[in-house]
């Protein structure tokens, strides 16, 4: 993902607020447009509301990709994967971030707030820069995921 490829939606709860702020600055420095969908402070908040906003933005193609941050990243990923067309990946390492894009064409990156800031920046850079491999086996598996989604949602974009 480059500055020319589209907007990235970002959201966090109160626990992810500081890391979200850091990543927004990193993205701005790279010229990537960001739509911040909350939380807007470190005051206690409910992660499902922000995961819903980001996932809906990606599902409806208002934003190309999304980033979600909460205490562990688990809840955010669970909510985001309820939306048609969203493939949220909880990543804990740079290699997770790379593979989520190469192998699964993940369009939402979920992070826990306890990720070291330097590692989080590396993960974000790799995740934004890595393209889907598109190789036969990865495409076949992605097609299977999308078919399951169509069967379950009946309204996939």
Task: From the structure above, extract its key features.
about 160 residues; alpha/beta; Ribose 5-phosphate Isomerase B, Chain: A; 5-stranded parallel sheet; 6 helices; about 45% helix; about 15% strand; globular
Q: What would you say this structure looks like, in words?
A:
With 157 residues, the protein is of the alpha/beta class. The protein has a single domain (8-153), classed as 3-Layer(aba) Sandwich (Ribose 5-phosphate Isomerase B, Chain: A). Helix content is 46%, strand content 14%. It is built from six helices and five strands; from the N terminus they run βαβαβαβαβαα. The protein has helices spanning 17-29, 47-59, 74-80, 94-102, 117-129, 136-153, and strands at 8-12, 34-36, 65-70, 88-90, 108-112. It has a five-stranded parallel sheet with strand order 2-1-3-5-4, sandwiched between helices. Helix 1 crosses helix 5 (117-129), helix 2 crosses helix 3 and helix 4 (94-102) packs parallel to helix 5. The longest helix has 18 residues, at 136-153.
Helix % is: 40-55%
CATH architecture: 3-Layer(aba) Sandwich
Q: What is the tally of helical segments? A: 6
CATH class: Alpha Beta
Strand order of the largest sheet: 2-1-3-5-4
Number of beta strands: 5
What is the CATH homology-level superfamily?
A: Sugar-phosphate isomerase, RpiB/LacA/LacB
Radius of gyration: 14 Å
Helix-strand topology string: EHEHEHEHEHH
Mean pLDDT: 94
Main structural class: alpha/beta
Query: What percentage of the residues does DSSP assign to strands (E)?
Result: 5-15%
